[in-house]
Write a structure and sequence with these properties.
Two copies of one chain form a homodimer. The first copy, chain A, is α/β, with parallel strands linked by helices. Helix content of chain A is about 40%, strand content about 15%. Chain A has eight helices and six strands, in the order βαααααβαββαββα. A six-stranded parallel sheet of chain A has the order 3-2-1-4-5-6. The interface between A and B is medium-sized, with 25 and 25 residues. Strand 3 of chain A pairs antiparallel with strand 3 of chain B.
């Protein structure tokens, strides 16, 4: 039986960190140094009022860039695994159709049957989970893979993947 | 540890069957007899072109009536269980914000952390699942409860609940 992989969206297949940085500069003239974000929790890394505003701005999620390598990597993994997109989207309900449309544009090979939008991920039961947030991985019962983002650089308790090539290697080795 | 219950929306907490019947009559002058729906798969019970049109009509899900007894029953169950709303909403992506708003209006006591919109439910891992569709219950690894709807009257392989009082009794007995 094919094993299944839960793949997060923000900071995993959608490059939200780069999108924050470029949008902060474009919309607010705020040039933030990516180096200074390293190891900081997301809530402390960006000016709170700006980040809240961006997260609630219509179109923000829809216009996010695709994470390098993620499209080819998912195609590769889908040859042998059931790949589910699992995004904690409920806190920003306006993002629900945006995220669906974004997936349809950038990942048209993911059928809607394999999309899950949830509040938290503790009831999602797959064999692997690729996520940048430890709170999701800590509660996960399968094999967790921490996708590297600035905010999680100090986390040492999960297998880490710095890019999509690393995810493929880990999944295919641990399978 | 508190056990968890996945609760479906359409035909379980939202009375979609009644909504179909009344909307068919109001919008298309089609007066359908509920008796004739009994035991028929949904796809055969309503005129296909009408049902497809309704399912894709903006506002259809948003204006659905609440299933009798469901609000009080969920409040009751939430005293002792983690209640998750789990709706297969991805086939109709325009319904995503409608379903979120509908829940916020009629079930404001359900926190967004307990909402899951998915394509299929096979990766949702709770102890109980209340659903009107056997395809969801057949794949479920916990204790399934078939919520009675016209289209599932001939199904005998799952514990059946005819109303929300019955769901409460089954959950509290099987716990």
């Amino acid at each position: 039986m094919r094993k299944s992989i839960a793949v997060d969206m923000d900071n995993v297949i959608a490059d939200i960190e780069s999108h924050f940085l470029s949008t902060c500069e474009k919309e607010y003239g705020l040039k933030l140094d990516r180096e200074l974000l390293k190891g900081k929790p997301e809530a402390d890394a960006f000016p709170k009022d700006v980040i809240r505003k961006l997260l609630y701005t219509p179109g923000f999620f829809r216009s996010a860039p695709v994470m390098t390598g993620s499209q080819d990597a998912l195609k590769n993994l889908m040859e042998d695994f059931d790949v589910y997109i699992v995004s904690a989207a409920m806190q920003f309900p306006h993002s629900l159709p945006e995220k669906f449309e974004w997936l349809a544009e950038h990942f048209p090979f993911i059928h809607w049957k394999y999309i899950i939008f949830c509040g938290d991920k503790s009831k999602v039961n797959t064999e692997f989970m690729v996520d940048d947030h430890v709170k999701n991985l800590d509660a996960f019962k399968g094999k967790p893979i921490l996708y590297t983002a600035s905010h999680n650089l100090n986390i040492m308790r999960h297998t880490r993947a710095d890019d999509w090539d690393a995810v493929i290697k880990i999944v295919r080795t641990k399978n």
